[in-house]
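Justification of resources, computational component.

The compute hours requested in this renewal are based largely on the per-chain cost of generating structure records like the one below. Each record pairs the submitted sequence with a full structure-token output. That output is archived, and it is also reused by downstream analysis tasks.
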Amino acid sequence: MMNVVYISVGIVFVLMMAGRLHGRERARKRVIRVVESHCTGCRRCIKRCSHHVLEMVKDETGMQHAVVKNPDKCTACGDCLGRCKFNALELVERVNMRRNE
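The structure output for this chain reads:
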């Protein structure tokens, strides 16, 4: 009976570690990008991001919108994506992000 418990705990541990490794790989390959035409400046994404990747700026017209301030700190966790109700955020490949800048 105890063997079953030990095996179950071991399987759960291995699955948790595999999930963390997958998350790190995703973070190396992807980064958040702001679609400025959809951003309303509500700040929900900025409040949710625990890595301080996003910040608010004013454009030429005086409207505020979010921008990616620290793309190297982005872990691609998607927390900010879940908070945005206007589809103003998307995950893109880091290679593509560098080409667009």
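Strands lie at 30-34, 54-58, 64-68, 89-93. The chain has a mean pLDDT of 85.
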